[in-house]
Amino acid sequence: MSSETEMNPSGETDVNPSGETGTNPLGVGGASLPDVAPVRFDTKITVVLRDDLEPWQRLNVTAFLVSGLGTAVPEVIGEPYEDADGVSYLPMFRQPVLVLEASKETLTAAHGRALSRALPRAVFTSDLFATGNDRDNRAAVRAVPTGELDLVGLAVHGPRNAVDKVVKGARMHP
């Protein structure tokens, strides 16, 4: 999370909009951070990971899953970053990404609910741990019927309430 992000009492993340001037409570680099009311996004980005993955697998799956959302839903991408010396950095999501974990059964149910609501989604199956490139990844997913996918991760984007219903039963990642 950036220094502009904070957790509110309900456990949701609020982000100040860019473009406003204000004081920098952290005193970082002399830059000024927005000093305005928090923004509550109408949408949510959530990743659900199967709870039996190794730590390296959790990180790998999360990285792959969220990469798909930025290309399919370009409005989730913010503006490029720049430091105080004028060095440019790539843009990132404009809103927080919640990472949850769930059992295999809960993950499968979440996948079904995401499909029924036609929400933008990305999947990672256990077969992808044995492949080494995008072509083989796509072939591994294509080889398995929807109901038989051995899901280890799911990323979903959509209206807050719809995403909350999709990931029902999942819990915050530790």
Give the SSE map:
Blueprint: E1 5-7, E2 13-15, E3 43-50, H1 55-72, E4 81-82, E5 88-89, E6 97-102, H2 104-116, E7 121-125, H3 134-142, E8 151-159, H4 160-166, E9 171-172
Helix content: 25-40%
The main sheet orders its strands as 7-8-3-6-9
Distance between the termini: 16 Å
Category by helix and strand content: alpha+beta
Instruction: Using the alpha-carbon principal axes, give the shape.
Output: globular
Using the CA coordinates, give the radius of gyration.
18 Å
How many β-strand stretches? 9
Order of helices and strands: EEEHEEEHEHEHE
Q: What's the number of helices?
A: 4
> What is the average of the pLDDT values?
83
The main pleated sheet reads as: 5 strands, mixed
- Residues in β-strands, percent: 15-25%
Low-confidence stretches: 1-30
How would you concisely characterize the structure shown here?
The protein has 174 residues and is α+β, with helices and mostly antiparallel strands. 27% of the residues lie in helices and 23% in strands. The chain is built from four helices and nine strands.
Keywords:
globular; alpha+beta; single chain; 174 residues; disordered N terminus; two-stranded antiparallel ribbon; 5-stranded mixed β-sheet
Plain-language structure description:
The chain is α+β, with helices and mostly antiparallel strands. It has four helices and nine strands. The strands form three sheets. It has a five-stranded mixed sheet with strand order 7-8-3-6-9, with helices on both faces. A hairpin with a 5-residue loop joins strand 4 (81-82) and strand 5. The two termini are 16 Å apart. Residues 1-30 have low confidence and may be disordered.
